[in-house]
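User: Design a sequence. Structure:
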């Protein structure tokens, strides 16, 4: 008794929705501070290799499963491998996106707060000490970040409630092109700042002596996080794709725009950090702590330009975060409506409520609950590490094993090449299948193991 499923309306819409999911806080907030923390250009080089050799094959594996089955992550496993233990992979991927959503929404809330601060011209008006101290005080407070988290999450739920076509597709289509223009402008501005040269060198001159197993593992985790892999987000979106879409093209298009966007964000953030004489290794606060300082300094001489750049910047982060967060919620909503017969409204609110509660605890873990540790980390850090370092690689590994070893090669071939009708796909199929079957799983496993043992 299958319900009629919605589909994305056009090829451009699919790529934009996938890119909308991929491009988010991972690119603008997480990537620059990871680059700063893990040694600059060398991290970027490893990140690019991890994206091409490990992440892209998972992207293809998820799209193949999603479109072949035309179902949510759980239903996909039941359709392609009925009554096997693979259903646990389906279940894993229902749980993890909602966990990610809960702490992601906290950072989404930060961008809401900062947008309001920018709109109020706060960065120019405050004193040096106020600007640098603001982030620490804000995240450690009880109510402000919780309210911001609530506003962010409610917006996400509202968009998902409107449905795939009217909500996600419309929203993403309207905002993604604007986003590209904005980040290019900000990067260009950042490069004109006196003293930004050091940042450019930092981003372009790799020092490979800094590479350690944990740098490689972090680069891999970042690549998976950035492409929304390992938890069935891409699988679910691919299940909304029509049979005549090209999986190779949408995968390459998404990966290329995601990579391009991350590097642009790096160029927007890191040179500005150097120009201000600040340290790139400041951690998760990098974007929220150092950029307001830069807007503040600039505000002394150019108040209007500084205010406008600040508003545009935090608006950019917010929009990018929203398009990603809706993709996390959609995975669970697809499961609950299709497998459990819940209506879309109930499913959306149930998952939102769960993410809200966990998110509130994450938010408080910077303040009143900072003494509560799980395996040595406050809740926010614990969940981020659990997801990026463990659940995403594990999910990704299992998706590649499923397509590489469980699905008949003929089915994979049929799906990837649209029944043998696409030329470039036919040509690349042996390589892609090799990557999915051997290179990616072995690579992920080795990175996992060396990080664990060394
Ligand atoms: N890729 C998004 C970003 O870079 C975040 C994201 C969306 C995600 N869906 C996901 C991360 C699923 C992991 C899994 O911000």
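Assistant: Done.
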């Amino acid at each position: 008794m299958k319900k009629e499923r919605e589909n994305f309306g056009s090829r451009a819409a699919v790529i934009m929705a996938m890119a909308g999911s991929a491009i988010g806080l991972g690119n603008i907030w997480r990537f620059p501070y990871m680059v700063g923390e893990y040694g600059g250009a060398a991290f970027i080089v490893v990140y690019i290799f991890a994206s091409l050799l490990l992440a892209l094959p998972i992207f293809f594996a998820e799209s193949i499963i999603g479109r072949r089955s035309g179902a949510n992550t759980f239903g996909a496993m039941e359709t392609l491998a009925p009554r096997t233990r693979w259903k646990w992979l389906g279940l894993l991927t229902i749980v993890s996106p909602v966990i990610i959503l809960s702490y992601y929404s906290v950072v989404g809330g930060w961008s809401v707060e900062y947008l309001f601060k920018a709109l109020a011209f706060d960065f120019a008006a405050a004193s040096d000490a106020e600007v640098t101290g603001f982030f620490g005080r804000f995240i450690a407070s009880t109510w402000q970040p919780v309210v911001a988290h609530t506003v962010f999450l409610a917006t996400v739920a509202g968009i998902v409630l409107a449905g795939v076509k009217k909500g996600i597709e419309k929203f993403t289509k309207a905002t993604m092109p604007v986003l590209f223009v904005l980040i290019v402008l900000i990067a260009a501005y950042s490069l004109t700042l006196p003293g930004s040269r050091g940042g450019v060198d930092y981003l372009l001159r790799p020092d490979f002596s800094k590479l350690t197993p944990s740098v490689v593992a972090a680069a891999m985790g970042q690549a998976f996080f950035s492409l929304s892999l390992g938890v069935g987000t891409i699988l679910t979106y691919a299940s909304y794709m029509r049979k005549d879409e090209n999986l190779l093209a949408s995968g390459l298009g998404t990966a290329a725009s995601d990579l391009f966007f991350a590097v642009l964000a790096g160029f927007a953030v890191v040179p500005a950090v150097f120009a201000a004489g600040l340290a790139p290794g400041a951690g998760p606060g990098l974007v929220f702590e150092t950029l307001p300082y830069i807007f503040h300094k600039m505000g002394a001489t150019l108040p209007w330009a500084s205010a406008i750049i600040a508003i545009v910047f935090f608006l950019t982060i917010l929009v990018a975060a929203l398009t990603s967060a809706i993709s996390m919620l959609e995975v669970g909503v697809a499961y609950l409506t299709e497998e459990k017969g819940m209506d879309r409204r109930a499913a959306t609110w149930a998952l939102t409520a769960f993410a809200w509660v966990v998110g509130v605890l994450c938010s408080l873990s910077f303040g009143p609950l900072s003494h509560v540790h799980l395996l040595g980390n406050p809740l926010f850090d614990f969940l981020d590490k659990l997801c990026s370092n463990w659940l995403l690689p594990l999910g990704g590994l299992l998706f590649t094993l499923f397509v590489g070893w469980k699905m008949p090669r003929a089915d994979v071939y049929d799906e990837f090449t649209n029944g043998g009708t696409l030329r470039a796909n036919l040509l690349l199929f042996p390589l892609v299948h090799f990557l999915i079957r051997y290179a990616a799983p072995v690579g992920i496993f080795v990175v996992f193991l060396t990080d664990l043992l060394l």
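Residues 21-22, 24-27, 97, 100, 225-226, 228, 231, 233, 324, 327-328, 392 surround tryptophan (CB under 6 Å). The chain has a mean pLDDT of 89.
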